[in-house]
Write a structure and sequence with these properties.
Elements lengths: L19 H16 L7 H12 L4 E9 L2 E7 L2 H13 L3 H8 L3 E3 L5 H6 L1 H9 L4 E9 L2 E10 L7 H20 L12 H10 L2 H17 L3 H15 L3 H9 L10 H5 L15
Antiparallel strand pairs: 1-2, 1-5, 3-4, 4-5
Helix pairs in contact: 1-2, 1-7, 3-6, 9-10, 9-11, 10-11
């Protein structure tokens, strides 16, 4: 039974929610100018901004991944969105990583309490400290292959409505199309293969390229595989209260060196320093 209308004769009728077709048209109209733009350098930032404009969220970021050890922040709508992505990369945990692992959307409507706070306790603490209360991570790609994530955050707790989730998934599809088809640095289009995905990683922020280079150096220093090397960087970063990027910069500057006989000290945050500096935070 419909609720009783206690208003007057001039009350507006109940608002009719737009159909899926109307929402699809709205999303298409918002993204189409970007996917045909010849200003490739501006597209990442504009994609993030369109997502924020379409949805009741505070900010957005897009991260591209080649593997568990190669993920780069491609764009962010604001500093908080960028720091949120960096926190998840440094921890190797959070909704973004869960979305990549599952190749399915991961929705965390309240990081202040309940199951979301318990699922990623360290990440949730850091996110709330940044002023973030809800995160919605949507994998980019098709089927079981996730090539990255679209991460939306909000400074108030609460779930997305069914319509907002529908629009978010449509936006995710549009971002996937852009990532796979817009070739960085040219007016052409790249094929959606591994080489195409790699080009997007190369175009991401330079600090994340530094992480990949540092992982390679730690692999040589300790004789371990890439995932173990990244875990060592993360452990050292967590112990020091730094980001993985900051630790990577020290390794590349030769002010921090990992040595097998110093593993215990490194995990406690002391590390073995090189000859060129004292290992202070960048």
């Amino acid at each position: 039974m419909r609720p009783e209308n206690r208003g007057g004769e001039n009350d507006m009728p109940d608002r009719i929610e737009p159909s899926e077709m109307e929402d699809r048209r709205r999303v298409t109209e918002a993204f189409t100018p970007l996917t045909v733009s010849d200003q490739a350098r501006e597209v990442p930032e504009l994609l993030c901004q369109v997502c924020v404009d379409l949805l009741p969220v505070t900010g957005a970021s897009i991260s591209i991944t080649g593997s568990r050890t190669a993920r780069a922040l491609w764009c962010a709508s604001d500093r908080t969105a960028a720091r949120l992505a960096e926190a998840q990369y440094s921890l190797g945990d959070g909704p973004c990583q869960s979305a990549l692992d599952r190749a399915a959307p991961v929705l965390a409507p309240d990081l202040t309490k309940g199951p979301d706070a318990r699922r990623w306790p360290v990440f949730a603490y850091q996110a709330v400290d940044l002023g973030v209360r809800a995160v919605f991570s949507l994998p980019l790609g098709a089927g079981a292959l996730a090539i990255g994530t679209l991460d939306l955050y909000r400074d108030t707790a609460g779930p997305l409505s069914s319509r907002d989730l529908r629009i978010a998934l449509l936006a995710r599809d549009a971002v996937t199309f852009a990532v796979l088809n817009l070739e960085v640095g040219s007016d052409g289009f790249a094929s959606p293969d591994e080489a195409g995905v790699a080009s997007w990683v190369d175009a991401a922020e330079a600090d994340h390229v530094e992480v990949h280079q540092a992982v390679g150096m730690v692999m040589v220093q300790l004789g371990i595989d890439p995932e173990q090397a990244l875990d060592r960087l993360r452990a050292h970063a967590f112990a020091q209260g730094w980001t993985v990027t900051e630790v990577a910069q020290q390794i590349l500057a030769r002010t921090l060196r990992f040595q097998p006989e110093a593993d215990d000290e490194q995990l406690k945050g002391r590390g073995r320093l090189g000859d060129e500096g004292d290992g202070d935070r960048p």
